[in-house]
Amino acid sequence: MPDYAVDNLLAINIGFVSMNLMLSIKDHGLEGNVIMGFEHSDKINDILDLDKRYRPELFIVLGKSEDKGHASYRLPADSIIEVK
Known about the structure:
Layout: H1 3-27, E1 31-35, H2 42-48, E2 59-63, H3 77-80
Antiparallel strand pairs: 1-2
């Protein structure tokens, strides 16, 4: 299987796992946040003391929140999507 196909499969699986983790975190009364914006390099493996065969793709941080979340405004889909 080509590398890009493996990467695509991994991305899909990571999405499923992280989605379920976030739902479970919320169900247990905690708050979570997914972080994907970091430099994907061996430096991360060194900091986390991970073997080089592992490739961190995202971090999920969790904790308790003093404040309750609130709904945020979303633009209506028909105002930002044009179907031709």
